[in-house]
Design a protein that fits this description.
The protein is mainly alpha-helical and 219 residues long. It has helices spanning 9-20, 42-56, 62-78, 84-96, 101-113, 131-143, 152-164, 194-211. The chain is globular, with a radius of gyration of 18 Å.
Length: 219
């Protein structure tokens, strides 16, 4: 959403499709098989949809888009998160929807409480800290404007990421997804864990890039 791609007929079409898929309650859900963790969170789907509508909603449907964004925001505020991705994407989604500072800080509090002694975050409470959860969490907190890269919490998270980075620059994240398709090599390391490791590496790299910025403006 920050690529700088200008709205055009293609984005108009996609935005209309996203709007039409919103549920009456305000959220978006999957209509296909959801693979853990990338596809199993309605919080993630709702947050991404809100950001898309905020960025590419058409001027002719501005009033409708505003109402849809507010409805999505209210769903995020009142739905019950279960895993770390739910908490992170709730924060990211309400930030994209224009939440005020009090709403953002309230949504951030339980996320901050989930930080482990090693400085990282885990995807679920029964799992160890990893780059996927840690990179996503640091990114969500910083981009929502509730945690600056100079804060102790952020620095501890960065320290965890640096300490777990492999020599080739990647991070290994263990896959939890059901194996529904024939395995093949993508070129990324870690064999059967390569897809989630690629995503984890992306989140970790984003968090480290944010750490290089002195301040992250609030939405």
């Amino acid at each position: 959403m920050r690529s700088g791609y200008a709205p055009d007929r293609m984005t108009d079409y996609e935005a209309a499709g996203i709007a039409a898929a919103q549920h009456r309650e305000g959220n978006w859900e999957s209509t296909t098989i959801a693979r853990t963790p990338l596809e199993d969170s309605n919080f993630s789907r709702t947050a991404m949809a809100l950001r898309a509508l905020k960025t590419y909603g058409t001027p002719a449907r501005a009033a409708e888009t505003k109402e849809r964004i507010e409805r999505g925001k209210q769903w995020l505020l009142h739905a019950k998160p279960v895993v770390t991705e739910d908490w992170d994407m709730r924060l990211a989604g309400i930030a994209a929807a224009g939440a005020n500072e009090a709403e953002l800080r309230k949504a951030a509090e339980p996320i901050l409480a989930l930080q482990r002694p090693d400085g990282g975050w885990a995807q679920r409470k029964e799992l160890p800290s990893d780059a996927y959860a840690t990179g996503m969490t640091l990114s969500a907190l910083a981009e929502a404007g509730v945690l600056q890269p100079g804060a102790d919490v952020f620095r501890k998270g960065v320290k965890f990421l640096l300490s777990t980075q492999a020599a080739d620059g990647s991070w290994h994240v263990v896959s939890r997804a059901a194996k529904l398709q024939p395995y093949f090599q993508s070129g990324f390391p870690y064999d059967g864990d390569q897809w989630i490791s690629a995503m984890g590496t992306g989140w970790a790299a984003n968090a480290l890039a944010l750490a290089l910025k002195p301040t992250i403006p609030a939405h």
